[in-house]
Amino acid sequence: MNEMHPHTRPINHSDVPSKSSYQHLQGERTFAELALFPGATFLDLGCGPGDYTIRAAQATGESGQVYAVDKNTEALAKLRSKRAELGLSNILILEQDLCDPLPIDQKSADAVLICTVLHHPAMRSRSDVLFANVRGLLKPDGLLVVVEMQKKETPFGPPLKLRIAPAELEAQADAHGLQRQNFVDLGHAYLMRFAPV
């Protein structure tokens, strides 16, 4: 999972032994919604240790560009190690706040992923900035995929009061010119895919 809130309950490993958060939250199903292709430009906002980043770098190939953005130094160190081990030269790692301007051209991103990030209190208060930034970075035919935990008790994840209901997420995105295209129930989590309008 991406940046962890101090009150986030850890995954109960007795229930889900040896599973990463990518596997636990149906990462392959989420990845399919991004519709990446060779040469695509992809932004992983709140990338953590980079499960989606690595998968995207492999899918977009040498002609693609993957931006991995997070301010968690330890997580990014793990991603740098994976990048070197796999020889993936198309990953640019940016250690910064997600709401700060990114060194990326406007309307240049084919797909953006924000996975289990928006519920964090620091992000909720600035979500308008983040959505506006993402809207500006997406190509006219680009996609935004957001994954958040279901607003119900689950074996792991943030406290219920911090979780974002699907209707709330859709309203936030819609206010910034991002229209819902798809909703996917991932069990403990849910996914929404948006496109610029």
Secondary structure blueprint with pairings:
Elements: H1 21-24, H2 27-34, E1 41-45, H3 51-60, E2 65-70, H4 73-86, E3 91-95, E4 109-115, H5 121-124, H6 127-137, E5 138-149, H7 166-174, E6 178-185, E7 189-196
Parallel strand pairs: 1-2, 1-4, 2-3, 4-5
Antiparallel strand pairs: 5-7, 6-7
Global outline: globular
**Cα-atom radius of gyration:** 16 Å
Number of strands: 7
Q: What's the overall average pLDDT, rounded?
A: 89
Secondary structure class reads alpha/beta
β-sheet strand percentage: 25-35%
The number of helical elements comes to 7
Key traits:
single chain, 197 residues, 7-stranded mixed sheet, 7 strands, 7 helices
Structure characterization notes:
The chain contains seven helices and seven strands, in the order ααβαβαββααβαββ. It is globular, with a radius of gyration of 16 Å. The protein has helices at 21-24, 27-34, 51-60, 73-86, 121-124, 127-137, 166-174, and strands at residues 41-45, 65-70, 91-95, 109-115, 138-149, 178-185, 189-196. Helix 4 links the parallel strand 2 (65-70) and strand 3. Residues 1-19 have low confidence and may be disordered. The two termini are 30 Å apart. It has a seven-stranded mixed sheet with strand order 3-2-1-4-5-7-6, sandwiched between helices. The longest helix has 14 residues, at 73-86. 41% of the residues are buried. The chain is 30% helix and 26% strand. The protein has 197 residues and is α/β, with parallel strands linked by helices.
